[in-house]
Amino acid sequence: xxxxxxxxxxxxxxxxxxxxxxxxxxxxxxxxxxxxxxxxxxxxxxxxxxxxxxxxxxxxxxxxxxxxxxxxxxxxxxxxxxxxxxxxxxxxxxxxxxxxxxxxxxxxxxxxxxxxxxxxxxxxxxxxxxxxxxxxxxxxxxxxxxxxxxxxxxxxxxxxxxxxxxxxxxxxxxxxxxxxxxxxxxxxxxxxxxxxxxxxxxxxxxxxxxxxxxxxxxxxxxxxxxxxxxxxxxxxxxxxxxxxxxxxxxxxxxxxxxx
Length: 259
Known about the structure:
Elements: E1 14-25, E2 28-39, E3 43-47, H1 54-61, E4 69-74, E5 77-78, H2 84-91, E6 94-97, H3 109-120, H4 126-139, H5 155-167, E7 173-177, H6 185-202, E8 205-210, H7 213-219, E9 222-227, E10 230-235, H8 237-241, H9 246-255
Parallel strand pairs: 3-8, 3-9, 6-7, 7-8
Antiparallel strand pairs: 1-2, 1-4, 4-5, 9-10
Helix pairs in contact: 3-4, 3-5, 4-5
């Protein structure tokens, strides 16, 4: 298997830098001092079981939740200190791929893709919208679905259209929340391949929240294991899963399906 780090070059400066991040909900301490760096052009998979704080982490990165303590720098902005207007401006540079695709059921694929441009594009010309829609549909391999409704699409196609809708704003950072959840193995492979294609074509920095080791191995340059509110281990897939720590080994044994 080719080492993707050898063929993909990252910037030296992090576009996401988290230090000492803590977050509790009442007496439940979800994050207990998390540190993480992600460079432009790099895919980092955050692995953890349900309830481990993975989704809380990306919500804090996106400014949807405030941390109790620690710093969260995204594209050189201290996210917890941003006011509403500055936060909205920063979010235009971040793409979110939600677990449920978050498409509008009453809109066609074209209308779903046009919506963020028309809402946030600042008077973008109709011809430019058409080109942008065609480009992102081509990027996800679904040009033929342009006039269909989400209800007419398969789960995998809806996931692809959701990713296309984030790409239309040309984000510098992608946040994927359980991108293969609920998908069959063949469709999961297609989504994993798409995540890699997005990285290579758009040079995005990405955090991939998942409990699927096959997804993590296929899509990421580095893996971070989140357990009991801290990153237990970070590194390449091989570095992480050759660690003798029994907690890591049990996660591997429980989850991993050999390719």
